[in-house]
Design a protein that fits this description.
This protein is mainly α and 240 residues long. The protein has 13 helices and two strands. The protein has a two-stranded antiparallel sheet.
């Protein structure tokens, strides 16, 4: 599972093959009444209350009963992610991908974010590359995500392009790929001109390469759009 290129090139299935059969009403009723589902609900309740140790305990028990349910691993990954355990989160996301048998861009995006948080920028970049490519495939296939929630049981199930591109720009900035960082900021801005964080990262990059006026323009735009970090970054980078 560490080799994302292998996962991307060798193990992907078509999105149209995912979830091709829906559970019957009886299956759904049995699922709701199952012990592992009750444990999941308890775990999610603790998760929502930010009681992460108790949430993990209940997810562990649910997984003991339902070892081949990828969603349980994704929920536990989300709990670990929010509790400050990026490596544990990555491990659970990978386990979920192994079980699922097909890949979804939001899962790779979350893996990438956790690599970013653990400062493993090369693996973060590769995972963001996969997330972006899979998201583009969703768009090219015309698959409608508008009716899908963004989060289910704390698990992110869809992500906007501007967030993927901006986070990938952060990875590239840390790897000193300045042109790549700027390109991704511009892609993010094109996808959503109102997403302030793209301008913030562009402003930081432009300051690093000595483009003070352009940096200030980008940071002021971020501030205009309500980014809470823009004023501090202008003071830090430009003394303004």
């Amino acid at each position: 599972m560490d080799n994302f290129e292998r996962l991307f090139n060798d193990k992907r299935k078509n999105f149209s093959d995912k979830n091709s059969s829906s559970p019957s009403l009886l299956d759904m009723q049995n699922m709701v009444n199952s012990e592992w589902m009750k444990l999941l609900i308890m775990g999610v309740n603790y998760y929502q209350d930010k009681n992460y140790p108790s949430a993990i305990i209940y997810l562990n028990k649910a997984i003991e009963l339902e070892k081949n349910n990828q969603h349980l691993y994704y929920v536990r990954a989300s709990i670990k992610e929010d509790s400050g355990d990026p490596n544990g989160a990555i491990s659970d996301y990978k386990e979920g991908l192994n079980i699922a048998g097909s890949d979804w861009y939001a899962t790779y995006n979350q893996i990438a974010i956790n690599f970013l948080n653990s400062r493993n920028f090369e693996k973060a970049l590769l995972a963001f590359d996969i997330a972006a490519a899979l998201k583009e495939e969703v768009t090219n296939r015309g698959l409608d995500e508008s009716v899908n929630p963004y989060v289910v049981d704390g698990v992110v199930v869809k992500v906007d392009f501007e967030r993927i591109y901006t986070n990938r720009a952060i990875a590239k900035l840390n790897l000193r790929d300045f042109q790549g960082c700027l390109d991704d900021c511009n892609k993010a801005i094109k996808a959503n001109p109102s997403y302030s964080h793209s301008y913030l990262i562009a402003g930081k990059l432009l300051a690093i390469v000595g483009q003070k006026n352009q940096s200030l323009d980008a940071l002021r735009k971020a501030q205009e759009l309500g980014n809470p970090s823009a004023a501090n970054l202008m003071q830090q980078l430009h003394g303004i």
